[in-house]
Design goal:
The chain is built from 5 helices and 18 strands. By secondary structure, it is of the alpha+beta class. The protein has 3 domains: 2-147, no CATH class; 157-260; 270-383. The strands form 4 sheets. Strands 1-2-5-6-7-8 form a 6-stranded antiparallel β-sheet, with no helix packed on it. The radius of gyration is 24 Å and the shape is globular.
């Protein structure tokens, strides 16, 4: 199961793509629109399904409607579950209530009240209107089934600052571009950083320190999510979303070397480095507390939370020294970003552990399913 998070101008969606036995080009996409707002597209993969969550910013109240008029609590999210069903797309829409932790990318719907909006099965070029959303005081969506692939010629501003990697555009659809990276070197690529817009304010990164992201001489395919309708005019950038672009800024290799922009490469390297550093501190801290026989699990949990809160989120000299050795001569402007990334990674590792502890507390606590903190930590700490 693969989870991708996408941020749009109007919609925040968390999408889950189910495993497929073979890769097929998608035929259908949802065109979701409502009065006064531009459409948003969600591609439905062949041979699988897709779950999309649309949170508060994408749920617009009916004009002149007060949230309390309906006597019901307004949903905090709308969930669409879609799958290809022959020549149609089966769609189930559900209203979800209750607060969500937007920072938790492994968001779970367990415990959140839900109410079904409706089930639909439109064909290509057919539209449905979710009038049932009005009962919650929300503007209804119009969902039209459109072609996922675009017939217009593939065009994308493409640049690479990494000589050993050759990019290739494989196709274009409603959500962006299908890209391939060809590793021309004899070294495995462990991480890449791509700028995805001409204004330099959007980027995409991917890494795999353990097995390598792209083996020597191999190819790596991925999706470049952006608005493919945005374009560059002869005079200036067209209004609206910034035009898509592809600029491979930097790549890290398994032998410790890098190619491309040094500042971008340092940003790629520092986050896993800081996460590993904080992970070691967290593990040592929890190991010591779990091993304290004078405490019961309730006391251990309280102490773990207290000690985790005290862990520093400031850049540690050990991390800074490693970055200096690996990327000598970084400009002062780069260190501002490096330090920010270190703080972010240190904080994220703490939060990840706190969320895991919360999940442990939510486990069944009766009969044969009872699990001690030590047992849970032995499993999660080894795999987490």
């Amino acid at each position: 199961m693969r989870t991708a998070i996408r941020f749009g101008l109007l919609f925040f969606t968390i999408t889950t793509l189910h495993a497929q036995t073979q890769v097929q080009q998608p035929r259908f996409a949802l065109e979701i629109s409502e009065d006064g707002y531009p459409p948003h597209f969600v591609i439905v993969p062949e041979g699988g399904g897709i779950d999309s969550m649309f949170f508060g910013p994408s749920l617009h109240p009916l004009s002149g409607h007060d949230a309390g008029d309906s006597g019901k609590t307004q949903p905090s999210a709308v969930k669409l579950v879609c799958k290809v069903d022959g020549d149609a797309v089966a769609i189930t829409a559900t209203a979800v209530f209750g607060p969500f932790d937007k920072t938790d990318t492994s968001i779970s719907l367990q415990g959140h009240p839900q109410q079904k909006i409706g089930t639909y099965s439109p064909h290509l070029n057919e539209s449905i209107v979710l009038r049932e959303m009005e009962q919650f005081g929300l503007q209804p969506w119009t969902i039209k089934i459109v072609n996922a692939q675009l017939s217009t010629p593939v065009s994308l501003a493409t640049l690479t600052e990494v000589p050993s990697i050759q990019p290739e555009i494989l196709g274009k659809d409603r959500e962006g571009y299908r890209m391939a990276l060809h590793n021309l070197s004899s070294r495995a690529v462990t991480a890449i950083l791509v700028e995805t817009s001409l204004d330099h304010n959007s980027n995409y990164s991917e890494s795999n320190d353990r097995g390598g992201l792209i083996a020597p001489g191999a190819n790596h395919e991925f999706r470049l999510f952006c608005d493919p309708s945005a374009a560059v005019t002869s005079n200036a950038i067209a209004p609206g979303p910034p035009p898509c672009a592809f600029n491979l800024k930097a790549a890290l290799f398994a032998d410790g070397s890098y190619e491309g922009d040094a500042s971008a490469a340092a940003n790629l390297a520092v986050r896993p480095m800081a996460a590993q550093f904080q992970g070691r501190r967290v593990h040592e801290l929890i190991d010591n507390i779990v091993a304290d026989s004078s405490l019961d699990d309730t006391s251990r949990l309280a102490r773990i939370r207290s000690e985790l809160a005290k862990l520093s989120e400031e850049p540690d000299p050990t991390i800074l020294e490693q970055i200096q050795l690996r990327f000598p001569g970084l400009p002062s402007t780069a260190w501002v970003s490096v330090n920010a990334d270190i703080r972010s990674a240190l904080a994220a590792e703490k939060q990840r552990t706190l969320r895991a502890l919360k999940e442990f507390e939510g486990l069944p606590n009766q009969g044969s399913t009872t699990r001690s903190l030590a047992q849970w930590w032995s499993a999660w700490g080894r795999n987490g």
